């Protein structure tokens, strides 16, 4: 198994475990076909190192990412370890802002798949009128498109758009999701992706949608959160997907 690779002496056991999970997450995003070549980002906060998070080295395919070559940066995107790689500045404003401001979010994933980007381009945005959309009821914020997210002054506006939510629709762009750990963030991304795919398919099918009542949507979202946080549901899902991926592709590194 890929977990048996040797941990460098200068990296703590806790950080190494996080690096393994984050590298698996990158490989899973590629496995599901959600990559945008070498672009986009997945970041994970280092809990024992204040103001630091791990992110992908810019220029590598997601399949080339390993626990060892992930880079460590601060919330402003400054590299904190000795690495031949640099990060992609386009990700620092979004990820750094969320990691700095939201203590309850320890992992952030940003993608712009076809389905998600199509929904993000629509005025009404995400629909809650399907099984997966209902699970995100009350958890979605929207941020107006300002171009490529390179500039520090956009941070405050993105955070205002996110508020206390865990899903941020970047209008005309894509999506960012964040949760308390890598497993729960990946499950949230999977749910959002499925919601977008079904919404796009339902729209192509024509006809009127059946509207889910607000009370039912809230009930669905609350129940999903209970399952994810209390039952180990997201951990089981993440580990199962890693096993499935490695059974088909072999060990990740």
Automatic annotation (TrEMBL):
<feature type="domain" description="Class II aldolase/adducin N-terminal">
    <location>
        <begin position="20"/>
        <end position="200"/>
    </location>
</feature>
<dbReference type="Pfam" id="PF00596">
    <property type="entry name" value="Aldolase_II"/>
</dbReference>
<dbReference type="InterPro" id="IPR036409">
    <property type="entry name" value="Aldolase_II/adducin_N_sf"/>
</dbReference>
<dbReference type="GO" id="GO:0051015">
    <property type="term" value="F:actin filament binding"/>
</dbReference>
<comment type="similarity">
    <text>Belongs to the aldolase class II family.</text>
</comment>
<dbReference type="InterPro" id="IPR001303">
    <property type="entry name" value="Aldolase_II/adducin_N"/>
</dbReference>
<dbReference type="GO" id="GO:0005996">
    <property type="term" value="P:monosaccharide metabolic process"/>
</dbReference>
<dbReference type="InterPro" id="IPR051017">
    <property type="entry name" value="Aldolase-II_Adducin_sf"/>
</dbReference>
<dbReference type="GO" id="GO:0005856">
    <property type="term" value="C:cytoskeleton"/>
</dbReference>
<protein>
    <submittedName>
        <fullName>Ribulose-5-phosphate 4-epimerase/Fuculose-1-phosphate aldolase</fullName>
    </submittedName>
</protein>
């Amino acid at each position: 198994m890929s977990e048996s690779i040797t941990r460098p002496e200068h990296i703590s056991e806790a950080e190494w475990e996080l690096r393994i999970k984050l590298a698996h997450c990158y490989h899973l995003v590629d496995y599901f076909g959600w990559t945008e070549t070498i672009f986009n980002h997945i970041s994970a906060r280092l809990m024992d190192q204040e103001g630091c998070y791990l992110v992908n080295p810019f220029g590598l395919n997601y399949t080339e990412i390993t626990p060892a070559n992930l880079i460590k940066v601060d919330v402003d995107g400054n590299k904190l370890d000795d690495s031949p790689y640099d990060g992609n500045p386009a990700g620092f404003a979004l990820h750094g802002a969320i990691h700095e401001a939201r203590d309850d979010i320890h992992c952030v994933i940003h993608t712009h798949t076809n389905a998600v980007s199509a929904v993000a381009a629509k005025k009404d945005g995400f629909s809650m009128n399907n099984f997966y959309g209902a699970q995100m009821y009350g958890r979605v914020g929207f941020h107006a498109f300002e171009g490529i997210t390179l500039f520090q002054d956009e941070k405050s506006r993105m955070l205002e758009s996110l508020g206390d939510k865990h899903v941020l629709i970047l209008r005309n762009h894509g999506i960012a999701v964040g949760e308390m750990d890598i497993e729960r963030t990946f499950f949230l991304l999977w749910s959002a992706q499925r919601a977008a795919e079904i919404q796009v398919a339902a729209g192509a099918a024509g006809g009127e949608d059946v509207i889910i009542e607000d009370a039912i949507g809230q009930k669905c979202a609350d129940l999903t959160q209970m399952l994810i946080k209390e039952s180990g549901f997201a951990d089981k899902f993440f580990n199962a997907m890693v096993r499935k991926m490695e059974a088909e592709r072999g060990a990740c590194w």
